[in-house]
Amino acid sequence: MGIASDAVLRRLLTEEDLTFKKAMNMASIIEQASKDANVLHSRLDNTQEAELEVLKLDARAQSVPQGKRLSKQEHSHYKCYRCRATTHVATTCRFKDAKCHACGKMGHLQRVCKSTAQRGNNRLRDRA
């Protein structure tokens, strides 16, 4: 029976009054901590890979030429905040220079205007 890890061996050699039982217990704890660290590192790698995929998808969506429509399957989970379409992202929306007929601000349509919704809620409160 030997110690496979140099790190465990070095740690055990720093202990005073080391018994066999204490050495086995410490080796077991250190090895388990190492395994847990590897699992955690693996999970972090998976999380970072997922974040990278999201960033790649976002970068790809923003690099689409003006007017080019993306397939519904590629961006069905995206919704353009300027016009509420799912076939493109806001950076490529043809209404990014449009003037809202509800609030007068540039960059969105009346049907997605947040100012209109806010005014509607205020009117309901005023009537009550």
UniProtKB/TrEMBL annotation:
An annotated Gene Ontology molecular function: zinc ion binding
Record Pfam families: zf-CCHC
This protein's record includes keyword Protease: no
SMART domains: ZnF_C2HC
Domain CCHC-type: 99-115
Keywords: Metal-binding, Zinc, Zinc-finger
SUPFAM superfamilies for this protein: Retrovirus zinc finger-like domains (SSF57756)
PROSITE patterns: ZF_CCHC (PS50158)
Gene3D superfamilies assigned to the protein according to its UniProt record, in alphabetical order: Zinc finger, CCHC-type
Protein name: Zinc finger CCHC domain-containing 9-like
Source species: Pelobates cultripes
Upper classification of the organism: Eukaryota, Metazoa, Chordata, Craniata, Vertebrata
